[in-house]
Amino acid sequence: MVGYQRVKVTDHAICPFCPGNEGETGTPIREITDAQGAWLVRCFPALNPIFMIEAAENKRADGMYDKMGNVGAHELVVENREHTKTLSEFTRDELASVLRMWAERMVDLKNDKRFKQVQVFRNHGELAGSYIYHPHSHILSTAIIPNGIQLELINSRDHYEQKQRCLLCDIITQKLRQGRRVVASTENFIAYCPFAPRSPFEVWVVPRTHSATFETDLGGTLTEEFTGLFIDVMKRIERVRNAYSVVVHTAPNQAQAIEQFRQEEVQVSDYFHWHIEILPRDFRTSRFKRDDEFYTVSVTPEEAANILRSEKF
Fold first, then answer.
1. Which helix (H) or strand (E) holds 31?
2. Residues 89, 220: one domain?
3. Element (H or E) spanning 239, and its range?
4. What is the CATH number of the domain that holds 257?
5. Residues 281, 232: one domain?
6. 180 in the same domain as 270
7. How many other C-beta atoms are found inside a 10 Å radius of the C-beta of residue 240?
8. 256 lies in a domain?
9. Domain span at residue 174?
10. I need a labelling partner for 62 at 20 to 30 A (CA). Which of 68, 116, 167, 172 fits?
């Protein structure tokens, strides 16, 4: 939670996300509970939100620049009752509940046509910028498409227009054919180290069948398969790094009347492929992060995949 991250919170006795401290976080938007009514996963508005549903869009010019209000939404998801549990220690059922919460909130927020993009991210460890150890994630809705997603859309669209194929589908095919940089795979999902990583041991988890939206893709046996793979990957990553960020990349809100999408001959769902990016953090990459989009890593993606793949549990 933005309001709490200025103070390092490692003690569950003062953690605002631990059971018994629910009054510190306000009224929940949604809770997933057990048979006895105890919460398993909670979602509530951030106390100090970056974006606000009540804010006016108020688009206006300031000379050659554009301004607008911080309209959007900022929600927190407390993912587990246990203060010290990391992703690698989640059971499949526990992770499935978190994924269900993410998906439900993304679908609900996309019903607001003001919001062009819904993002889910979680940071673990101080080097990733998180000062509350309790497992939690953020959900942000924005009235603009963030630059990173916009770049993915442009590159994916360009590749599709040239080849009539999805960019990530082509990458997956090559990864599987070459057997390089693959960390783990199942019938429907693959985890691999990207060719040009931003940090050592960066891993992407991607569905092997083309799909644009995370929030509508998981369910039934697919969820069980995905949770098994994801927990396995996190066990491997947590053996080599104790801080990381996890970011869900899903297609923009296609219910939103976005002029650029209406003018395209192909639909976003044709060329955008959802995926989850896991970016481990270390002191070097966190301290020397560059703003010019050039990254220096100490471990090649081939070496990283070999190390992660060879870890035994």
1. strand 30-33
2. no
3. helix 221-240
4. 3.30.428.10
5. yes
6. yes
7. 16
8. yes
9. 166-313
10. 116
**Side chain identity at residue 24, one-letter code:** E
103-135 burial code (b ≥16 CB/10 A, e <16): bebbebbbebebbbbbbbbbbbbbbbebebbbb
Within 39-104, strands assigned E span: 39-45, 60-62, 65-67, 72-78
Mean pLDDT, residues 265-273 taken together: 92
Could you report the per-residue pLDDT of 121-149, keeping only the tens digit for each? Answer: 999 998 888 888 999 999 999 999 999 99
The answer to whether position 232 is within a domain reads yes
Query: DSSP secondary structure string, 264-298?
Result: -SS-HHHH---EEEEEE--HHHHHT--SSS----S
Cβ-based burial of 309 (10 A; exposed 0-12, middle 13-18, buried ≥19): middle
- Number of separate domains in the chain: 2
Residue 41 has pLDDT above 80, yes or no: yes
Reported as a single tens digit per residue, the pLDDT across 187-239 is 999 999 999 999 999 999 999 999 999 999 887 789 999 999 999 999 999 99
Report pLDDT for 291: 47
Is 150 within a domain?
A: no
Q: How confident is the model at residue 259 (pLDDT cuts 50, 70, 90)?
A: low
